[in-house]
Amino acid sequence: MKVEAYFKDILKDRKVHLTLLDPEEQSPQEAVEIAQAAIAGGTDGIMLGGSTNDGSELDATAQALQENIDVPIVLFPGNITGVSKYADAIFFMSLLNSTNPYWIIGAQALGAPSVKKIGIEAIPMGYIVVEPGGTVGWVGDAKLIPRKKPDLAAAYAMAAEFMGMRMFYLEAGSGASQTIPPEMIAACKKYTSMSIVVGGGIQDGATAHKIAAAGADFVVTGTVVEKCSDVEEKIREIVEGIHQA
Ligand code: 1GP
């Protein structure tokens, strides 16, 4: 089954948790160990990417994961170097609130031929960066959506849906001190029928629950597994919070 259909199938019953790994943060073998622990804790898929990516590290990590895990591996590209033939799919994203056309469509055009060539599934996704925004906000020249303006986020979501995108990612920035506000998630959910993805700064089950209860279909965590000693237990706590929503 294709990855998007696989996730849609899960969404009929419950919400989805994805674990984000940055190939630059650990060796391929360590990435496999973290992924296996996260899967044991209940994660539904592994996202691979970062704001600064080296293509060879990405390939090595994606290949090691493909040989050792069964859940979908989805690329989360930070630039044109974020493509690998060892993944199952790619979130083909446009940073809609960037002020720089490179991040809205330039990198996508440059990367599209390699996506076509390797033939992996491309899942169209609108992506916006909200305050505080972190590294991706800076790198992506984002005009950060103010936290107190849920309607602005919803306007971007509606535009993304009208342009044919099927997923919409609200990003607070990796390691953000504040997560996406629940009212903003609820507004995007209310005005569109896309799958809403939320990430940035989610570190515990209670927060994950709040995010999912507000309307997120996908909850993404990354940094938390880099910091904790028991990945399986931490992911289980987060996944339980999401499933209860
Ligand atoms: C970053 O939204 C993701 O793109 C995950 O953020 O690393 O804070 O979990 P964290």
TrEMBL record:
GO cellular component terms, semicolon-separated: cytoplasm
Listed GO biological process terms: glycerophospholipid biosynthetic process
UniProt name for this protein: Geranylgeranylglyceryl phosphate synthase
Keywords: Cytoplasm, Lipid biosynthesis, Lipid metabolism, Magnesium, Metal-binding, Phospholipid biosynthesis, Phospholipid metabolism, Transferase
Pfam families referenced in this protein's UniProt entry, alphabetically: PcrB
UniProt binding sites for Mg(2+): 22, 51
Membership in a protein family: Belongs to the GGGP/HepGP synthase family. Group II subfamily.
Residues given in the record as sn-glycerol 1-phosphate binding sites: 169-175, 200-201, 222-223
Enzyme class per UniProt: transferase
HAMAP family, per the entry: GGGP_HepGP_synthase (MF_00112)
InterPro entries: GGGP/HepGP_synthase_sf, GGGP_HepGP_synthase, GGGP_synth, IGPS_HisA/HisF
Recorded GO MF terms: imidazoleglycerol-phosphate synthase activity; magnesium ion binding; phosphoglycerol geranylgeranyltransferase activity
Keyword Cytoplasm attributed: yes
Function: Prenyltransferase that catalyzes the transfer of the geranylgeranyl moiety of geranylgeranyl diphosphate (GGPP) to the C3 hydroxyl of sn-glycerol-1-phosphate (G1P). This reaction is the first ether-bond-formation step in the biosynthesis of archaeal membrane lipids.
Catalytic reaction(s) noted: sn-glycerol 1-phosphate + (2E,6E,10E)-geranylgeranyl diphosphate = sn-3-O-(geranylgeranyl)glycerol 1-phosphate + diphosphate
E.C. number(s) listed in UniProt: 2.5.1.41
Subcellular location: Cytoplasm
Alphabetical list of SUPFAM superfamilies matching this protein: FMN-linked oxidoreductases
Pathway(s): Membrane lipid metabolism; glycerophospholipid metabolism
Required cofactor names: Mg(2+)
